[in-house]
Write a structure and sequence with these properties.
The chain is mainly β. It has 3 helices and 47 strands. The strands form 8 sheets. Strands 14, 15, 16, 17, 18, 19, 20, 21, 22, 23, 24, 25, 26 and 27 form a 14-stranded mixed sheet that branches.
Length: 495
């Protein structure tokens, strides 16, 4: 069993408990969907925050390992693995730490009573959480109003780019809405795992993602923010019901999870240790919506009947970014039809025969690219039906997204008593790591980069000078190995 293997790998897993009826949530008489369901962990009830907060009529923003909501004029911040919620900077102690599991925030019931001002009761026998609050403003419909704008939220069930205008369909609780997307709407793709936003297109939005659509008073759509969680890695253990990635994460699909292997629809049981998998989550429910797996079996040269490939080469000597052009050259039997694949992400890219037996094709990296050590496969098919596939010796990494800056210290707006505080920041990336030599840090108008400790995960500056009372301005710039660049500025105060 996978659970036994997990115990030997790190001790973080546990045997599956006998199944019990799911715990339901009822807010002012409205029963929320069971997914994501509340959890009992060592006797402490953990309640999914996003769905509950939205049902209370409040906003919800996820920023990496923390979430933010507003109760009236107060700002509420909750951080992963912290027992303290901040209400306008004032700490409120909870009876258990908040937890981020598969991109779903969970908090103990006290978060909703002490912090959000709701009445909450957990009936253990009936397995029902009842929450009563005067905050409720949208009655579980997935719509709320801010000024002259309406925000519609929910899980994407369909995207129709062929209609005029194109539409996105959202489901929230039992309500389904189809929203026409006007031409000037700004599309943003947000991977909550790295807290990075990138421009997108409607074609980037997938069913199963969570979306927020901002509609103006005249009915035009101002923006669409598509949120999802993702994880990448090699499969090290498989089980009929779950799999384990090399980073220790257990992936549990459900009946709606789409699985593909080398670009073709597959069953979960087809996956094997050694396959490289990309996992995509719904950030509202935590459900695994998609598993894209790759298995490289092709050799660097191959022959089958009249079809042969002697080699496949690429000009990519380093990770690529959006706008870069990849060129693939393949040598083989002349007179065939040739294509190449970038793993299971982009397939059947046409190659032209520039000279007898020499086939060349190009591909421009898109903004949605996120390839990690992905194989380049060349295909050749002859007129008599014989075909063959071979792999380039080098793999491809590419990313259209800049690195994320996960946390900084002292935090923006923080007031510190030290006159020479340490300044630091941590980074998160997906496909392409940070280039440490790219890191630039300016503190209070001084370039302190040469004095910093710089790594692919963080930068730290231990100040050699003291600062007077007042504002200290910080500017940080960092690039990944593909050249994608992020810049962040913030201010803290010496008191």
């Amino acid at each position: 069993m996978l659970a036994v293997v997990l115990l030997t790998l790190g001790g973080a897993a546990h045997e599956k408990a006998p199944s019990q009826p799911a715990i339901s949530i009822v807010i002012n008489g409205l029963t929320l969907p069971l997914e994501p369901r509340p959890l009992l962990d060592n006797g402490i009830l953990l309640v999914p925050v996003r769905r509950t907060v939205l049902a209370l009529g409040l906003d919800f923003t996820a920023q990496g390992s923390q979430m933010i909501t507003h109760v009236g004029s107060k700002t509420v911040i909750l951080r992963d693995r912290s027992r303290v919620a901040l209400v306008d900077g004032r700490p409120v102690l909870l009876d258990a730490p908040a937890e981020l599991r598969h991109w779903v925030f969970y908090a103990p019931l006290r978060f909703f009573t002490e912090v959000l001002g709701a009445e909450a009761i957990f009936d253990r026998r009936a397995r029902v959480v009842s929450i009563v609050s005067q905050l409720v403003g949208r009655s579980g419909l997935g719509d709320f109003t801010i000024g002259d704008r309406t925000i519609k939220v929910g899980t994407v069930t369909a995207v129709d780019v062929d209609s005029d205008p194109p539409t996105v369909t959202l489901a929230f609780n039992d309500r389904v809405r189809t929203i026409a997307i006007t031409p000037n709407a700004i599309i943003t793709m947000r991977d909550v795992g790295v807290d990075v936003d990138v421009p997108g297109e409607l074609t980037d939005i997938r069913p199963g993602d969570y979306a927020e659509i901002e509609v103006l008073k005249n009915g035009d759509v101002a923006s669409v923010v598509d949120e999802y969680g993702s994880r990448y890695g090699e499969i090290v253990v498989t089980d009929p019901d779950e799999l384990l990635l090399e980073d220790g994460h257990v992936i549990v699909p459900d009946r709606d999870t789409e699985v593909s292997l080398n670009g073709k629809a597959a069953e979960f049981s087809d996956l094997q240790p050694g396959d490289y998998a990309t996992i995509r989550y719904n950030v509202e429910t935590g459900e695994v919506r998609e598993i894209v797996a790759e298995r490289t079996e092709a050799q660097t040269s191959a022959q089958s009947g009249t079809a042969s490939i002697s080699d496949v080469e690429t000009d990519a000597t380093q990770p690529l970014r959006a706008g870069d052009t990849l060129t693939v050259t393949m040598h083989g039997t002349p007179g065939g039809a040739a294509t190449f694949d970038i793993g299971s992400y982009v397939q059947s890219i046409a190659m032209a025969e520039h000279s007898p037996g020499t086939y060349v094709g190009t591909y421009q990296i898109e903004r949605s690219a996120n390839f990690v050590d992905t194989p380049i496969l060349g295909h050749l098919q002859m007129p008599d039906g014989n075909s063959v596939v071979a792999r380039a010796p080098q793999s491809l990494s590419a990313s259209g997204r800049a690195p994320g800056i996960a946390s900084v210290g002292p935090a923006d707006g923080a007031r510190v008593d030290l006159d020479a505080p340490a300044v630091y920041a941590t980074f998160v990336t997906e496909a392409v790591p940070v280039n440490p030599s790219s890191i630039y840090l300016n503190v209070d108008g001084h370039d302190v980069t040469p004095e910093c400790l710089r790594t692919a995960q963080f930068v730290q500056y231990l100040s050699q000078r003291t600062y007077p009372r007042g504002a200290v301005h910080v500017t940080l710039r960092v690039s990944d190995e593909a050249g994608n660049t992020t810049q962040k500025t913030w201010t803290f105060y010496i008191q």
